[in-house]
Design brief:
Radius of gyration: 27 Å
Strand content: 15-25%
CATH architecture of the largest domain: 3-Layer(aba) Sandwich
Number of strands: 21
Largest sheet: 9 strands, mixed
Shape: globular
Number of domains: 3
CATH superfamily of the largest domain: SGNH hydrolase
Helix content: 40-55%
Number of helices: 22
CATH class of the largest domain: Alpha Beta
């Protein structure tokens, strides 16, 4: 089966005509041949004007990421009818994301050019009416669908019939549009299903005077110049990637001429460029931004050809070094090739190569990693260091639809893993090592605070996951509120720090038989007997409810080999092999005690 991404080149810049050509090629080949992508997504766009080009560019850019999108594009300016009608084609399509794109001219209507036909008081009333109208419209989507919604805010106009006196008005035309945007942000701020896309800021970044091709506007009511559609689609991908859990986890950094200017082995500690000078400031500010990413949960690692002691001296002694050794979860500082080091980093942190982002000033190193490890996202760093910060800030692969407490601490958690590994290397007995960790496992039934993380783990965890079933927050909420399910989260602490919620169990209760639907554990705590503790908890609760047997299913995937022998090694009897899964059974007349070197805290 041929991959769609093989049809298109991701390395060359494309004109809008190229996107139209490539989209036709993809659609044609998809009909004639069996083409595949790793992921699929259903996208609906509901707009108030002509949006030719968005679908075509989205198709190509998604396929470049190995995502095949299906589309439902609403008819011209029919968004209101589509959303309000429960039987509309929109809801039958069942999209994963709905993009609602209503433009400023449409929302103001005739008043766009004659805003002062209304009084200040009337404009205030108008803002309230438009906010309520938009909120009601979005609530209709929520009532009929659990899809994510990307709602455009409104471009704040540049023009005013009052000219320089516009900002002297009590509640003027510009202020009314700004208040409309502010109100929409407040209304949907805490709604995890609705995301307000800051289209006004997007227009400002392009240049509002250049956002419309007026010839095409008057010919076909197109209110976005075709040239800017690829940039808009890049913004949409910032939402599509996390919906499909395609976010990256780790930035791998070169050091010389990347994290600081110059070469430490040649220039020495005093000679490298780093600090409040014209040459050192770009590197210092890049480090500050990288630290902000670390603080929100992005893992940092080093891949550098250097002497380890020289590098440590910079980390420990340079007065303007923002990032320290403690911020890095893996440091491959040696004279090996960059490809081997990338593999070592992935193994060291225990994440896939597809989770890595590589930043290096050397073009040859970048090309080598691109060719040898296509799963790794390699940033095309510009030659001018003054452009580094803008380039790194432009990476949209770390966006998440919701940041949990575990996400915020992820960088610290992986960095603490180095301390555990150092102890492990000194120990010859695994049980002695596990005792030294002083592990505490807290098992808690799902609640409003843990449900987002539980859903996130079902989407992301692959290695130790017996069924790899994927669930949304709405699904977990439904199960947690039903007496037919047991849904628990598993939090792990030890002497080196908090690992956060790293395990999930979902059990379907079937009278005297319980069926394990989901049983997963994050790879960063794998091999520490947490999985046995989770099973002991399930068995304990099943016995309390006079259950006779527990059924476990194993559905093999390409990545969950570590979970294959779990039931076999923990007292389950093999029952049968079905088409795609193994069925195992545990007889609850047997004992299954907790381990004495793990402290278990139950929060039922």
């Amino acid at each position: 089966m041929r991959k769609i991404k093989e049809l298109i080149s991701t390395k060359e810049s494309k004109s809008i005509a190229d996107y139209f050509r490539l989209s036709r090629l993809i659609e044609q080949e998809s009909k004639e041949w069996k083409l595949s992508c790793d992921k699929t997504i259903k996208i609906s766009i509901q707009s108030s004007f002509t949006i030719n080009g968005i679908k075509e560019v989205l198709l190509v850019k998604c396929c470049e990421l190995d995502i095949f999108p299906e589309f439902y594009i609403g008819d011209y300016n029919q968004y209101f009818q589509e959303i309000l009608n429960a039987d509309s084609a929109l809801y039958k399509f069942a999209p994963d994301i709905i993009i609602v794109f209503i433009d400023t001219m449409t929302v103001w209507g005739e008043q766009y050019f004659l805003p002062y036909n209304m009084s200040d008081k009337e404009r205030k009333v108008w803002v309230c009416e438009k906010v309520n109208e938009t909120q009601s419209l979005i609530q209709k989507i929520k009532y009929h669908s659990s899809t994510k919604v990307l709602l455009h805010n409104f471009e704040v106009p540049l023009h005013s019939p009052l000219g320089i006196l516009e900002n002297k008005q009590e509640f003027g035309f510009i202020e009314a549009t700004e208040e409309l945007n502010s109100s929409l942000r407040r209304v949907f701020k805490s709604d995890n299903q609705i995301f307000v896309f800051d289209y006004n800021s997007f227009c400002s970044s392009i240049g509002k005077k250049d956002i419309i091709d007026y010839k095409m506007y008057y010919l076909g009511d197109m209110k976005l110049d075709l040239r800017h559609i690829p940039e808009l689609v890049d913004e949409y991908l910032s939402y599509i990637k996390p919906i499909l859990y395609l976010t990256k986890k780790c930035i791998v950094l070169d050091l010389d001429n990347t994290l600081w200017g110059g070469v430490i082995g040649e220039d020495g500690l005093e000679g490298i460029k780093l600090g409040p000078t014209s040459e050192g400031r770009p590197f210092q500010e890049c480090q500050r931004y990288l630290l902000s990413l670390f603080n929100r949960g992005v893992i940092l690692a080093v891949n550098s050809k250097n002497n380890f002691d020289d590098v440590l001296k910079v980390f420990n002694e340079h007065p303007y070094m923002i990032l320290k050794e403690k911020h890095f979860s893996s440091m491959q500082i040696n004279w090996d090739d960059k490809i081997s080091n990338m593999k070592a980093i992935a193994e060291d942190i225990n994440i896939g190569l597809e989770s890595l982002v590589f930043i290096d000033d050397d073009k040859l190193n970048r090309e080598m990693v691109k060719d040898a490890l296509p799963e790794v996202f390699v940033v095309d760093l510009p030659e001018d260091p003054s452009l580094y910060l803008r380039t790194i800030m432009g990476i949209n692969d770390f966006n998440m639809l919701q940041i949990t407490e575990e996400d915020k601490k992820k960088g610290e958690m992986y960095a603490a893993q180095k301390s555990r590994q150092e102890i492990r290397k000194k120990m010859t007995d695994i049980t002695e090592y596990l005792r030294k960790l002083e592990t505490v496992v807290q098992i808690e039934k799902a609640n409003q605070f843990t449900i987002p993380r539980i859903a996130q783990l079902t989407q992301k965890t692959n290695q130790f996951n017996v069924t790899t079933k994927r669930y949304l927050e709405e699904d977990i909420k439904q199960y947690a509120n039903s007496n037919k399910f047991l849904v628990v989260s598993v939090k792990v602490d030890d002497k080196f720090g908090d690992n956060g919620i790293t395990g999930v169990v979902i059990v379907i209760k079937e009278n005297v038989t319980w069926r394990i639907d989901t049983f997963l554990l994050s790879c960063r705590v794998l091999g520490r007997k947490v999985e046995e503790t989770m099973l002991a908890y399930v068995i304990e609760h099943a016995k309390k409810e006079n259950v006779k047997t527990i059924i476990g299913e194993f559905i093999q995937t390409k990545k969950n080999q570590p979970a294959k022998e779990f039931y076999k090694n923990n007292g389950f009897d093999f029952i049968k092999q079905e088409t795609k899964k193994e069925i195992w059974e545990f007889d609850l007349r047997k004992d299954y005690p907790y381990l004495d070197f793990i402290l278990v805290i139950r929060k039922d």
